[in-house]
Specification:
The complex is a heterodimer of chains A (135) and B (511). Chain A is mostly helical. Chain A has one domain: Helix Hairpins. Chain A is 66% helix and 0% strand. Chain B is mainly alpha-helical and 511 residues long. Chain B has a domain of 195 residues. A two-stranded antiparallel ribbon of chain B has the order 1-2. Chain B starts with 7 loop residues before the first helix and ends in a 5-residue tail after the last helix. Classes of the chains: A mainly alpha (135), B mainly alpha (511).
Amino acid sequence: MELLFSVLIAILTGTGIYLLLRARTFPVVMGVALISYAVNLFLLAMGRLRTGQPAIIGTGESYTDPLPQALVLTAIVIGFAMTAFVTVLALRARGELGNDHVDGFEERGREQERQQSASEEKPAEPGDDTQEPRP
Amino acid sequence: MMQHWSLFPVLLPLFTGAILIFMARADLNAQRWVSVISAVLGVPVAIVLLMQAQSGAIMAYAMGNWPAPFGIVLVIDRLSALLVTMTALLGLIALLYGIRGDDRFGRNYHALFHFLLLGVQGAFMTGDLFNMFVFFEVLLIASYALLMHGAGPERTRASFHYVILNVAGSAIFLIGIGTLYGMLGTLNLADLALRIIEIDPADAPIVRTAGLIMLMAFGLKAAMLPMYFWLPAAYSAASPSVAALFAIMTKVGLYAILRVHGLLFGDHAGVLAGSMQIWLWILSIGTLALAIIGLVAARTLKRAVSYLVVISVGTVLTTLAINDPNVLSGALYYLIHSTFVVAGLYLLADLIGAQRGTTRDYLTQAQPLVQPNTLGVLYFIGATAIIGLPPLSGFLSKVLIFRGTVTHPLAPLLWTLLLLAGLIALIALVRAGSTLFWRTNRQPPGRRKADPIKLGVTAFTLLLSPALAIFAEPVILFTESVALQQNAPWLYIQAVLSSETTSLITTGGGL
């Protein structure tokens, strides 16, 4: 179980960091959400992983540590609020700045190049969807 | 009454903020009255705590009367009391400036303002690591909204970076907290400090990792080297009253480093003693060096002030790395001085910008100012103070820091950088000042004079620097006593963990 759990956290964190480093706001928001899931699981694991144990001392032979569960609850609530805020902020940035780049503006040179190459390639290969420029 | 006094700096902004949320649609003047009265009350509340703490007693307030390692405690020692008082005073200053216009652009300015105060003061007082995280989140979410306040594309752009970085920083902080809990089985700072002494050497590397992870999280809040890039953009985009209040926010990070790493990884910490020092050295020196470069490159006055904030952070970090009570005393004096001077400079930058038409505070030629003499004198005072020229407080604090480091092996490097920072700040601010006040075109000056209350608040804030120099003796005596108390962490531990719970731990409680 420990191995499965740690691999899961690693995958979530890795995916989260990858998405966090993207240039568009939506993947970044998803990255933030995934990282907060990973952190919540990590906190839970810090109380040691036990199955089928009560979180109360004295009712059974052993018990599972209740404190990390309380911490995770708090962290989930806060993480949820933050994700909601970031989502609204991303929408507002899209509305106010007119694009969804994290810097608020496109890198001019590259963007124009891409648009140019897209417009040059499009009529030549109309049926080729592998060449489709990213939205 | 007096025994519950430690709770007031948290309760007062909490209730004020809650009331103000319900008043969001009420008349703005009514909101201003409630808000200002609460901020005014906050100052004596903090000063009473400061007086109590000055006697040397460390007050530990057990929330809900749960005994210390199991419940959450609020701890007021001299350092906490000093910072809480600074926050209350700075909050009042920023609010008085804010009610002259900054609060018109959104309904919840006042409520958010008090929630930010709640988060900052709570973070300064809590004795529990997870509770510190919660207060950090309270202050962060209030600061996100305040930063956005007044809108505009520039603010949206700066906020997005600020928010994403801080959300990631919170995740990092939680990982650090989780690791510490997993290794040591407690989150109470005093209890952590006790357990870390008896740690199994085999576990030490993991605990050190947790410490470094938390250093990263605090470093992000404090604007330390790899993570300060958000600060100039965010602070210079914020509305002036908010930027002035944010001057205390980097201090939250510095305080957290001093408190957590001082208690957990200080000289008494057995295997792990001083394991953060080398990192603090490298990062603080780097922060100073890059902030100097940024200062020269700044194109607006607000951005220049933002880099001055980063320089002050770097300076305090070097003194934390040295970890010597004499230096710490000077550093605390510097902390008080830099917080207020920088806040004053943000306000002044707004006053100057408002009189230069569309050029705002860009450092280029523009129409002449309406009140060049008044603003010029204030600018002169602020610049002299922050550069560290005699006779103001900046000079005094640098002398104190230098005097404390005479025997330190790395002193030449530190002195060179600090003096260089002073020189560069001198050049940058002289250049900025001569552009702002003298490089004028032939257009007639505008008509609108600065609002007298805004001007008065700015002048008061900047004049705190001469006041700090004149009343240097009592202030320095106090910061010395703070440093002595910081140097004796067992006092803190004893105050938090009463004798019976201490024996409980040693007879094998916990996991």
